Amino acid sequence: MLGLWCKRPFAVIDAGSISEDDFIPIDLVYTDRVGQIYMVRDNPKHRWLYLSEMQHAEVMLLKCFDSDLNVPARFTAHSAFELPAQSTDAEPLPGRQSIEVRTLVFY
pLDDT (tens digit, 0 to 9) for every residue of the chain, 107 residues total? Predict the structure, then answer.
């Protein structure tokens, strides 16, 4: 199944097309603590990107946050979207498989 499109591809917003005002803080309330994530406000200026026909041996690396105020891309939003069928007689697209690994880097 290498080279096939998947039903819900992984997509990111080009960091140059998003501003800090587009991020909406959302509390994650647990029994023992409160965490926080960000939702993203819809904005027609966003430029969404995805890798079509991504291979199983390929990976996408993205930076979700950078504390350095001097870097041009401090935030990147990501999601998935529904890819419409290419034709009415096409076979159903397979689902996307993904593995998420988060890493913190201090230097």
Answer: 344 566 778 889 998 899 889 999 999 999 999 999 889 999 999 999 988 777 778 888 888 788 888 988 887 888 888 777 666 666 666 666 777 777 888 87
What burial class does residue 5 get, using C-beta atoms within 10 Å of its C-beta: 0-12 exposed, 13-18 middle, 19+ buried?
A: middle
Amino acid identity for residue 21 in this structure:
D
pTM comes to 0.71
Q: Which residues pair with 37 in a beta bridge?
A: 26
Phi, then psi, of 15 in degrees rounded to 5: -60, -25
d(CA 49, CA 10): 9
Domain range list for the chain: 10-80
Query: What does the alpha-carbon distance between residue 44 and residue 57 come to, in Å, rounded to a whole number?
Result: 33
